[in-house]
Structure formats: C-alpha cells, structure tokens
Amino acid sequence: xxxxxxxxxxxxxxxxxxxxxxxxxxxxxxxxxxxxxxxxxxxxxxxxxxxxxxxxxxxxxxxxxxxxxxxxxx
Length: 74
Hints:
The chain has three helices and no strands. The two termini are 27 Å apart. The model has no long low-confidence stretch (mean pLDDT 77). It is an all-alpha fold.
C-alpha cells in the first residue's frame, strides 16, 4: 500500500514539474517577438498551463498533505 502511495506521489510531482516547465516555456515564447495570432495562442496556452499547475498541486496535496508545504516552497 505504501509503495502505491509513493508511486502516486512521484507521479503528482512529475505532473507539477511538467506543468511548471510548460508554463515557463510558454511565458518565454510570449516574451519573444511574434505576431498577434501567436500571442493569442500563447495566452491561451499560458492559461491552460496555469490551470494544469493548480490541478496537479491539488492532486499532490490530496495524496500527501504532509509534504505539500515542502513542494510549495520549491
């Protein structure tokens, strides 16, 4: 049972890291010069990525509430 929980916690951490990476990359692309259509698409992507980060963190907190503050401080 503990091994399954550890696996789920590891997956939740990966989701958080992937969502953060995708969000940061979208912000970097938005800072570069581009057209209006590109910026609109990136704004949409940033919003989606922000929601993914929120959802991944919420799932992590449900799985492992004791370590949630450690992940938030990273």
